[in-house]
Amino acid sequence: MYGRLWNLITKYMDNSHAVSVFLPVMIVGWTIAGVAAGLAVCLITGTAVINVLADLVCAGGYAGLILGLFGGAFFLFRREV
After folding, report:
1. Contacts of residue 65, Cβ cutoff 8 Å, sequence gap at least 6
2. Are 60 and 38 spatial neighbours (Cβ–Cβ below 8 Å)?
3. Can you give the residue range of the structural domain that contains 66?
4. Cα–Cα distance for residue pair 76/34, rounded to 1 Å
5. What is the DSSP letter of 64?
6. What is the dihedral of CA 73, 41, 51, 49, to 10 degrees?
7. CA distance 29 to 71
8. HSE-CB of 67 using CA atoms within 13 angstroms
9. Which of 40, 48, 69, 75 could form a cystine bridge with 2, CB 3.0-4.6 A?
10. How confident is the prediction along the chain (81 residues), in pLDDT tens digits per residue?
11. pTM greater than 0.90 (yes/no)
């Protein structure tokens, strides 16, 4: 997934500018995925979303930070070496 997104971005811009687009897209994408997964669990278990809204936003933020930022940075580091 990281490689396909990188190839799509570098198809339209050079590598020096692609990093500035790649990392924010990864952060936003993983944040949305984390919140969506939490919402799916809430809907399956029947939990009221308003009661766990802070937990959903926090989990989405951690997913964006860990998987998006750090995962994207490790991908770029491995790609450059």
Report:
1. 27
2. yes
3. 2-80
4. 22
5. I
6. 90
7. 12
8. 15
9. 75
10. 889 999 999 999 988 899 899 999 999 999 999 999 999 998 899 888 888 889 889 999 999 999 999 999 999 999 874
11. no
